[in-house]
Amino acid sequence: MDYQQLTDDLHIKFKDEIDKGKVATYIPELKKVNPNKFGINLYTVSCESYGAGDFQDKFSIQSISKVLALTYALKLVGNKLWKRVDVEPSGDPFNSLVQLEFEKGIPRNPLINSGALVVSDILISKLKNPKTEFLAFVRKLANNKQINYNKDVVASEKAYGYKNAAHVNLMKSFKNIKNNVDEVLDFYYHMCSIEMSCEELSRTYLLFANGGKLTYNDERIISRGRTKRINAIMQLCGLYDEAGEFSFRVGLPGKSGVGGGIVAIHPGKYCISVWSPKLNKKGNSFKGFQVLELFTTRTESSIF
Ligand code: GLU
Asked: Is the N or the C terminus of the chain less surrounded, counting Cβ atoms within 10 Å?
């Protein structure tokens, strides 16, 4: 398979296609993005990289970072984490409060906002300098010291984060948040503000295609078993309330973010990232979804 040819073809095919999506505006800073940006990058476990379009431009990875926070928290506290967060798909939007009250402050899964807020709380309890240590962890996975938080995005989210504040407060009332509410929100917003290019994203998430080991030095970060579980959670919960549709049409574990990125993993083979900021009605990149569908069709490489 000529992957470079394929990524180029997909880029050409979708570049000028009508995009019915809309850039996320509820975080004002995200509105500033050029809506026509479009990049694709494929990284194989043998470390070959194939990119097309704006695949080296950085963007706000937003919720995609929740997988990295989960990975770090699992490393630190192990299976105890599952007492505070469940592993079921929510079937509701990522920021829905409805289920949380019925289910007594236990989030459905770690990839919706409430779940990631509990994971943030765990990291704060375990780390001396949570923001610095989390960033160092991400940089290690990325093998790249140029990965950073975007302070403007943090400030923008803080100013408009009424619902996230509601989540933390509600969970605190059920005793599922141990630390100070503002501290949890501050960490969570930093985590969401991380910027990466498609190439950096694929490189970082290659860990989950490589059984939990870094490809660049063979260091084990998490066990095979935990890698399997994280991929399973991405498969069931990674695309908001469109995870079923993503499994149906793409057939890979994946995670999306409101910055317009989607990362998808083929265990044992590759990691692919797409960025196009306009989102469909469920909050997933409109073009990204289609690119990945055609990619797994052309390569006949879904996990199913
Ligand atoms: N920081 C965003 C929020 O909390 C993340 C949303 C996302 O990418 O799903 O609303």
From this structure: C
